[in-house]
Specification:
The complex is a heterodimer of chains A (about 100) and B (about 325). Chain A is an all-alpha fold and about 100 residues long. Chain A contains two helices and no strands. Chain B contains three helices and 13 strands. The chains are: A mainly alpha (about 100), B alpha+beta (about 325). Chains A and B meet through helix 1 and helix 2 of A and helix 3 of B.
Chain lengths: ~100, ~325
């Protein structure tokens, strides 16, 4: 019996990082756009803009890597299934040959 | 289940370990500093310019925004429970109930101001809404947008720039008024279109409401809000050969102020600016004196980020190394 997707919580967290990054960039843009004061715009740009960009990049990278690991695990599981079945077939053939 | 309990214990231990440290770090750091702009003598001696306050407006928070439903799509029309022509700043139970703005018209010379004083006579009549004006804690911030006409509007207030803000103090004599030393605003005064009077961070139990008027037509000078600006350009201290004794105005003990009434004044429209006479001898504050600058994050919650990282990094490491096979 298959257990529920073990990667789901981590995929959700990484997706939340990406969404948080976009929200951070949006907030930074709004803060920077509503004033002409460079001393306010610069922290907004650095903390919100660059910080948001880092969140998006890191979140996307982790998400893609985790998805790749999940697919690799599925592939390994499928391969194990094939090998198990093959082994069963081979054993069944040996048993049939021994009976003759 | 046991694993969940173990994570809970670890998280609780981390919170206990980091909580006090975060609280200490979130507290404002006070460190000595020197305000060079104030202590530097002037190359071209600063002049005092009285700028004209043209109009005022006040705004109040939209009551719908405080409900769980949030702000409505259509802004409510302005509704003032106070007499017409009165302007209000107030807070009740730590929440802002009113904020006021004043628009100023600056002459060309006054637009280079680096300091000054804002004085606003108060209307202390309780019938006009005044409540405990002596308890008022008000920040004066600059605005760079034109001020719309509004009395009690819920929206449309110009965005104030409060980094930094000047603190307005209540002065009871000879008549109740607010006085704000604008020298803290420094270069923020360049190109300013007006000032916002906002309640400073208040205690949850504080409640006060100050009222002021902008009399039209002939009114005694003492009843009018007054903005006096210092115009001048500071230079390096070594260029001064004969410093004069320091003069403290009393508004900021320990902080020397470079208030210098001097010389031939540039031509300014009499309705906009008046220049102080040149007879009094120049008085320059030269002796550098230290004062304390409060440094803190605007949003202290940022100190919780390490806690988030402490949770997120192990979670990521665990998630990226665990077996993902579904069988």
């Amino acid at each position: 019996m298959k257990r529920p997707n073990p990667a789901l919580p981590s995929l959700l967290v990484f997706a939340a990082l990406v969404v948080g990054g976009f929200i951070s960039m949006t907030v930074a843009w709004r803060m920077a756009a509503r004033t002409l004061d460079v001393s306010i715009q610069l922290p907004a740009l650095i903390s919100g803009g660059i910080g948001g960009l880092v969140l998006v990049v890191v979140g996307t990278a982790l998400f893609v890597v985790q998805l790749g690991r999940l697919r690799a695990a599925d592939e390994r599981a499928a391969m194990d299934e094939v090998l198990d079945r093959t082994s069963e077939i081979v054993q069944a053939m040996r048993a049939a040959r021994g009976a003759k | 289940m046991r694993r969940l309990a173990r994570y809970g214990v670890v998280l609780a231990a981390l919170a206990l370990a980091c909580g006090p440290a975060a609280a200490v770090l979130a507290a404002p750091v006070t460190r000595p500093g020197v305000d060079l702009a104030l202590k530097a003598p002037a190359a071209h001696s600063p002049k005092t310019v009285t700028a004209r306050i043209t109009r005022a407006a006040w705004f109040q928070p939209d009551p719908l925004c405080a409900t769980p439903l949030g702000c409505g799509p259509i802004p409510l029309p302005a509704l003032s429970p106070y007499p017409k022509g009165t302007f209000h700043v107030g807070t009740a139970l730590g929440r802002q109930t009113a904020r006021a703005y004043i628009a100023v018209t600056l002459s060309k010379a006054a637009q280079r101001a680096r300091g000054g004083t804002l004085s606003i006579p108060l209307d202390t009549n309780p019938a006009d809404g005044s409540i405990a004006p002596s308890a008022a804690a008000i920040n004066v911030c600059v605005i760079y947008q034109a001020l719309p006409l509004a009395e009690g509007a819920f929206a449309g207030a110009p965005a104030p720039n409060c980094l930094p803000a000047a603190r307005a103090k209540y002065v009871a004599a000879p008549a109740p008024h607010l006085v704000a030393d604008l020298s803290r605003l420094g270069g923020k005064l360049v190109g300013v279109k007006g000032f916002a009077l906002l309640p400073a961070e208040a205690k949850p139990v504080s409640a006060w409401h100050v009222v002021f008027k902008l009399p039209a037509g002939a009114a005694p000078a003492s009843a009018l809000p007054k903005l006096t600006l210092l115009v001048g350009r500071p230079v390096a201290p070594h260029s001064v050969s004969n410093p004069a004794p320091a003069v403290h105005t009393g508004s900021h003990p320990g902080r020397a102020e470079s208030v210098v009434p001097v010389g031939p004044a540039p031509e300014l429209p009499p309705s906009v600016a008046t220049i102080r006479p040149s007879n009094p001898p120049p008085v320059v504050a030269q002796r550098p004196t230290g004062h304390y600058v409060t440094i803190a994050y605007q949003y202290p919650e940022v100190w919780l980020l390490p806690l988030v990282l402490i949770v997120l990094v192990p979670f990521t490491i665990r998630a990226m190394t665990k077996d993902l096979s579904r069988r």
